[in-house]
Amino acid sequence: MKQRIITALILAPLVILGIFELPLYLFILTIAAVTGIGFWEWTQFVEHKSRQRALIPSVIVTLISFVLIASDATSLNTIQPIHYFILGIGGAWWLYSSALAITYPRSSKTWEHSNILRHAFGVLTLLPFLWSAILLRAQGIEADAHYGAKLVLFVCLIVWAADSGAYFAGRAFGKRKMAPSVSPNKTVEGLIGGIITALVVAWFTAKWFGLEFSSPAVMIIITLVTVIISVLGDLVESMFKRVSGIKDSSNIIPGHGGVLDRIDSLTAAFPVFALLYFIF
After folding, report:
1. Exposure string (b/e) for 5-34, b if CB count within 10 Å is 16 or more?
2. In terms of pTM, does the model score above 0.70?
3. Comparing C-alpha atoms, which of 3, 148, 157, 153 is closest to residue 77?
4. How far apart are CA 253 and CA 129, in angstroms?
5. What secondary structure letter does DSSP report for 107?
């Protein structure tokens, strides 16, 4: 626990600094690098003799996405059909994968022996996360260089608040297990505590940052859906690790495991939040 706290105290300011101070092209390179590490860690979930070769399909799909989707500030500020497409695919994936996690282990019979599906699941997990973070960061950048950064940090804050609230509420009141076959420590009471904490943080942060939602009710609904999906996203990665017999995706972050272990909730939260934000 001590190591986790020390690492978090170092990483959190660096993440916030990067979100706000990196120019857009460096932010894109950074989030692409994080995604690339995530893809590398995902190769453990794919049954292949060579992790390097297992990485190739994800790299190819990612490169193709950068060919098809313009990454300049002007293009990213105009939400186009291809943006909605990739965000919609991400949203649909998280609904489907959440159902897989909740019904595990029965659901694993449909995919655990298919390498093609395991590859596809990695792309569906990380590619929409990559582009949703980029799209949010670019919003309003020509008028306000930090507006998009506030959106990105807003998503991070509500997810972190939900994680913390769920942890303490679960320890204090947790009785009913959400998905005992996947993560025995996650409870319904913890989920409720996480949601309440996230809504409080969202309310004050949205006002402080001056974020534009069509109404307070819409902000609450978007936050609620995003937080629930983020919690389920954590369960999804736990499911893949359990099937693969892996405890942590790697040991790259002291006390926290791998990149996937730290961004599992965010990979679910970003595309869902971005889709709902742009629609409403």
Report:
1. eeebeeeeeebeeebbebebeebbeebbeb
2. yes
3. 148
4. 20
5. G
CA angle 78, 82, 87 (to 5 degrees): 95
Q: How far apart are CA 247 and CA 117, in angstroms?
A: 21
- Count CB neighbours of 162 within 10 A: 30
Spatial contact of 161 and 129, defined as CB atoms under 8 Å apart: no
Cβ neighbours for 82, distance < 8 A, ≥ 6 positions apart: 68, 69
Cβ(111)–Cβ(248) under 8 Å?
A: no
**232: number of CA atoms within 13 Å, CB side?**
23
The residue type at 102 = I
Q: Which residues pair with 183 in a beta bridge?
A: 179
Q: pLDDT by residue (tens digit) across 25-74?
A: 999 999 999 999 999 999 999 987 899 999 999 999 999 999 999 999 99
Those residues whose C-beta lies under 8 Å from the C-beta of residue 110, and which sit 6 or more positions away, are: none
Using CA atoms, how far residue 76 sits from 55, 251, 254, in Å, is 27, 34, 35
Of 230, 235, 225, the residue nearest 267 (C-alpha) = 230
The helix (H) or strand (E) run that includes residue 186 is: strand 183-187
Say if residue 152 is exposed, middle or buried (CB neighbours under 10 Å; 0-12, 13-18, 19+): buried
Q: For 65-123, write each residue's pLDDT tens digit.
A: 999 999 999 999 999 999 999 999 999 999 999 999 999 999 999 899 999 999 999 99
Read off φ and ψ for residue 145, nearest 5 degrees. Answer: -60, -20
Cα 218 from chain centre: 21
